Structures are given as structure tokens and as C-alpha cells.
Amino acid sequence: MSGLEEIEKTDPRLGNERLKRYIREKVNHLLSVMGTKPLSREELDDNTLLELDPIGIIALSFEQILEHQKDTNERLTVAKDQLQAVFDAVGVCISIIDEDMRIVNCNEKQKEMLVSANTEVIGRHCYEIYCGKDSPSLDCPAVETLATGRPVFIREVKKKNKHFQIVTSPMKDAEGRVTGAIEVSMDVTEKKKAEELMRQAEKLTAIGLLAGGIAHELNNPLGNILGYATLLLKDGESGLGPGQKEKLEIIVEQAKKGSEIIRGLLDFSRQSVPAFQDILINDIIMKTVRTLQNRLACQGIKVDTALADGLIVRADPRKIELVFLNLMLNSIQAFEGMDRKGKAISVRAVREGGLIQVKVADNGPGIPEDILSNIFDPFFTTKPVGKGAGLGLSICSGVIREHKGSIHAASEPGKGTEFTVSLPAGVKG
Ligand SMILES: Nc1ncnc2c1ncn2[C@@H]1O[C@H](COP(=O)(O)OP(=O)(O)OP(=O)(O)O)[C@@H](O)[C@H]1O
Ligand SMILES: [Mg+2]
Fold first, then answer.
1. pLDDT tens readout for residues 320-342
2. 391 CB near ligand 1 (under 6 Å)
3. Which CATH superfamily is domain 92-187 in?
4. Residue nearest to atom 19 of ligand 1 (CA)
5. Which residues surround ligand 2, an ion (CB under 5 A)?
6. Per-residue pLDDT at 220
7. How far, in Å, CA of 55 to CA of 162, rounded?
8. pLDDT tens track for 223-244
9. Which pLDDT does position 54 carry in this prediction?
């Protein structure tokens, strides 16, 4: 027997009251199912109850629900857009991967750092896209998080020649099963480079102090050897036995070479004070070319010079000569073992505003892009042990800095290298 039949059987007045209560309850139940606030007794008075239109109420409720749904959807869209904007705006790379290490989502920074242009990433393996590998690396923090279900805090990993600090956290379902991982990584390549430079600068200071100390100690005895050998040569010109003069000349020559090395060491340790004077830069350039003439001729290297007249710089001639000597020696050494016709070094000098600009260029093998930023670092060399100490360009940059100028390199591998030295023009320059 239904509820209504039961009410009909009882006293009609009592039945009426119960009927109204029953209808109110059902209406409010309907409203609550529809997600609408229940109506109070005043809102649903006897008259309203009599005129009650259940289909109208359902229609109204649907309308309200749809309205509510639309509002919720709009809010959800705004929240999603905001979340995506934050996701993309943060300065770190964020990637979400599933348990098979396939990319579910990643932010713009991640794409910018590790994904080549126009590459579809969603659904692809992260190790393929981000690391360029066929399988994940053993030290990959995401592998560990997926296997253990635990986060990994700050691990340094190298991806595509960049250094990253990575943090990974697991994603789990309601049962606690690992369904994927979130990987947040920060590019620390520049920071590492700065730390490395710092270490090198400290190393350089220590070596500079040591080299400077030794150079000072050796300077005097070597000066004496040179002085006395020269005197002996002069004094004993007439009385020297056969071969003795030649031997003395060798002593003088070797002592001079030793002095040059010591001067180089003092330059390197920045312990020699520059002797500034107004000089014609062309004189220095031509002197350097003359010094290297034999080596240039032996290797069949042509030197082209295009030097504007009257370019005066305020500089220490010996130190500036050392700069051009190092630049040209590097070009000569770069040509070594190169089977190429038309080996050439060109030196051009012009005035550019208040600066004198000298370009030393060669058509040698060039410098690979990935090492171009390191060539001015002290002890950076690509030459075999015993061939280069990696000090030439670091000395050049030190000397040019001392002269308040600048030096930089441009290179196209396979085509050649060009160094540009800029120095403040002298009074009459
Ligand atoms: N003209 C050039 N062509 C090609 N590579 C060059 C050139 N100049 C410099 N380099 C590169 O830059 C590196 C650093 O040069 P740098 O003069 O500082 O040291 P080095 O020549 O190796 O040693 P050192 O000058 O102390 O004998 C070289 O080892 C070489 O790889
Ligand atoms: Mg060199």
C-alpha cells in the first residue's frame, strides 16, 4: 500500500495535513536532488501547495542547475587558465610524466630549455625528448621516484650539455598507487660556470703569486749572467780562443730568452707595471709580423695588412706587442697540420670614434661554438700537453683590460677566426 492510500484511509482533515506535509517533503527532496535550497513553510504555503506545478518546479530546478553548472564551468576555465599561466610563467622547468615515463604535460620553460622547436612532446618518453636517449639514465631522479614512490630532493643531472638541479615528487591515486611523477628542474649551467671561473680565478691568483715570486728571484741572477757574458764578449774580443766567442754568444742569447720568459711570467702575474706612452699601433703590428716572418714563411702563410695611417694609442708597446704576438701565434698554430691552400692572416686597423680597432683574422679551422666562450679562460687549451699552456688569450685579455680596452673573438668553424681588439685612441690618435 502506497503512502497516499494510507493517508486517504484516515481522518480527512488529518489526511489533508499529512498530505500537505508529504507534498512539502517531496518537493524539498526534489529541490535538494536538483541541488537547490529547500523552500520554507512561508514560501510553500497552502495556496502555493494547491497550485503546485511539479513539472514547473523540475523545469525551474533544471534551469537553476544549468545556470549553476555554467557558472562553475566558467570559474573552472578561469582557474585552469590561471594555473596554466602560473605553470608557464615560473622560471623553472616543470614536467608531469606517467608511470611509463611518457610526458603528460610540461610548461613553456621546459620546452624552451630542452625541446627542439615544433616537436610534439605529449605522449613521448621524457628521456627521448629531454635527454636525447633511448632509455632512462641510471641516475634519473624520476626513475627513482616512480620505483620507490618517494620524492627525490635536488639531484644534479646533465641534459643536452646543460646542468640541472632536479626535484621529483610522486603522483598517487586514491589507493596510494604511483601513477606518475612531477619533475621540477632548474638550469644551473651559468651558476656552475661562474663557480668554475671563481675557482680558476683563485687558482690563477695563487699561481700568479708563485710565478711572480719566482720570476723576481730569477730576474737578478739572470740579469747578472747576461751582463757578465756581454762584458766577457766585449773584453775578450781579441783574446778569445776558437769556439769561445760562439759559446759566449749562445750564453747571451739563452739568457735573453730566459729574460723574455720571466717578463711573460711577470705580465701573467700582473706584477709588471705598464709603461704607457703614445705609440703608433701600426709600428707594433709590423714589428710583430717581422718577428714571426720565418715561421709564417715556413708554413706558407700570407699576411695581409690594411692599416689606416696615424693611429695612435696610449699603451705599453711591449705588452701590446705581446697581445698581437699571441693572436698571430694562435693563428699560425691553428694552421698546423692543415692541408689547405691560401693560408692567410689579415690584420686591419681603423679608428672607430674614440677607439682604435684592430682585427686579426685567419682562414684557419675556426673554433667550435661550444668552446668559444672558454678560450679566454686561464689554462683553457685544446693543444696537446707541452704544446700550449692555455695562457696566451688570458694574458691578452688581462693586458687589454689594463689598457681600458676590450677584446673579443668571433669564429665560424671551417671558415676561420677573427679577434677584435679595441683600445682608447691616444692624444693625437
Ligand atoms: N685563431 C685560432 N684558431 C683556432 N683556435 C684558436 C685560435 N685562437 C685560439 N684558439 C683556441 O683557443 C685556445 C686557447 O688559446 P690560448 O692562446 O689562450 O692558449 P693556447 O694557445 O692553447 O696555449 P698558449 O697560448 O698558452 O701557448 C687554443 O687552445 C685554441 O683551441
Ligand atoms: Mg696561444
1. 998 999 999 999 999 998 888 89
2. yes
3. PAS domain (3.30.450.20)
4. 390
5. 330, 392
6. 87
7. 67
8. 999 999 998 888 777 678 778 8
9. 65
What pLDDT digit, counting tens, does each position of 234-279 carry? Answer: 877 767 877 888 888 899 988 988 887 787 777 767 666 778 899 9
Question: Is the CB of 111 within 6 Å of ligand 1?
Answer: no
374 lines ligand 1 (CB under 6 A): no
The angle subtended at Cα 127 by Cα 123 and Cα 129, nearest 5°, is 60
Per-position DSSP letters for 386-426, written without gaps between them: TT--S-HHHHHHHHHHHTT-EEEEEEETTTEEEEEEEEEB-
Q: Which atom of ligand 1 is nearest to the CA of 381?
A: 29
Which atom belonging to ligand 1 lies closest to the Cα atom of 378? 18
User: Which residue type is seen at 99?
Assistant: E
State which ligand 1 atom lies nearest to the alpha carbon of 364: 3
Which ligand does the CA of 377 lie closest to? 1
| Phi, psi values for residue 30, rounded to 5° | -60, -45
Position 158 scores a pLDDT of 84
**Ligand 1 pocket test target in 261, 296, 330 with most atoms within 8 Å of CB:** 330
Whole-number percent of the chain with pLDDT over 90: 47
Which atom of ligand 1 is nearest the CA belonging to 331?
A: 1
Question: To test the ligand 1 pocket, which listed residue (381, 396, 420) has its Cβ within 8 A of the most ligand atoms?
Answer: 381
Angle value at C-alpha 110, between 183 and 96, nearest 5 degrees: 35
What pLDDT shows up at residue 379?
A: 77
Write the class of the CATH domain 193-268: mainly alpha
**Domain chopping of the chain, boundaries:** 3-86, 92-187, 193-268, 277-424
Pick the range with the lowest mean pLDDT from 57-61, 274-278, 364-368, 422-426.
Answer: 57-61
- CATH homologous superfamily of 277-424 equals Histidine kinase-like ATPase, C-terminal domain (3.30.565.10)
- Distance separating alpha carbons of residues 319 and 312, to the nearest angstrom: 15
Phi-psi category of residue 155: left, alpha or beta, with phi > 0 → left and psi -120 to 50 → alpha = beta
For residue 391, report the distance from its CA to the centre of ligand 1, in Å: 8
